[in-house]
UniProtKB/TrEMBL annotation:
<keyword id="KW-0472">Membrane</keyword>
<dbReference type="GO" id="GO:0005886">
    <property type="term" value="C:plasma membrane"/>
</dbReference>
<keyword id="KW-1003">Cell membrane</keyword>
<keyword id="KW-0812">Transmembrane</keyword>
<feature type="transmembrane region" description="Helical">
    <location>
        <begin position="6"/>
        <end position="33"/>
    </location>
</feature>
<feature type="transmembrane region" description="Helical">
    <location>
        <begin position="54"/>
        <end position="73"/>
    </location>
</feature>
<comment type="similarity">
    <text>Belongs to the TsuA/YedE (TC 9.B.102) family.</text>
</comment>
<feature type="transmembrane region" description="Helical">
    <location>
        <begin position="122"/>
        <end position="143"/>
    </location>
</feature>
<keyword id="KW-1133">Transmembrane helix</keyword>
<dbReference type="InterPro" id="IPR007272">
    <property type="entry name" value="Sulf_transp_TsuA/YedE"/>
</dbReference>
<keyword id="KW-0997">Cell inner membrane</keyword>
<keyword id="KW-0813">Transport</keyword>
<protein>
    <recommendedName>
        <fullName>Sulphur transport domain-containing protein</fullName>
    </recommendedName>
</protein>
<feature type="transmembrane region" description="Helical">
    <location>
        <begin position="85"/>
        <end position="102"/>
    </location>
</feature>
Length: 145
């Protein structure tokens, strides 16, 4: 495989994944009247009524099972995580804190909110993206982690 084949393959995979996420989010809101925001679904699970828990558990279970279903059709891409355990724990806590302050996560704001034209979601997504860009720049180029 030459490098241009790999770039094309990655482009198709990214486009396909984005289309599937968009279609799933659109169907979720059309069929259920709910936003497919993962942090909101998870938070709601922790304080939901009994009848409201089933769809939340199934949604999150579907996300956990999806890679195994994908693996039936194709090999999973290799993943390399360069961060240590402590960094991952701190990052996870910061993401949780950020989603709490932003009243949602990238899926709720970035995928669902922007598509609805929500100014708050556009602002939140721009903030997420800038924080990520600044963090990568600081840690990789200034601090050297």
């Amino acid at each position: 495989m030459n490098p241009s084949d790999f770039a094309y393959s990655a482009y198709i995979a990214g486009l396909s994944g984005g289309l599937l996420i968009g279609i799933a989010a659109a169907l979720f809101v059309l069929l259920n009247g709910r936003i497919a925001g993962i942090s909101g679904i998870l938070a709601g699970l922790l304080q939901a009524d009994k009848g409201d828990k089933t769809w939340r558990v199934l949604f999150l279970l579907g996300m956990a099972v999806a890679p195994f279903v994908y693996q039936i059709a194709s090999d999973l891409p290799s993943v390399t995580i360069e961060a240590g355990t402590a960094q991952l724990i701190i990052a996870g806590l910061l993401v949780g804190l950020g989603t709490s302050y932003a009243s949602g996560c990238t899926s709720g704001h970035g995928v669902c909110g922007i598509s609805r034209g929500s100014i708050r979601s556009i602002a939140a997504t721009l903030t997420f993206m800038m924080a990520g860009i600044i963090t990568v720049y600081l840690t990789r180029h200034l601090i050297g982690l």
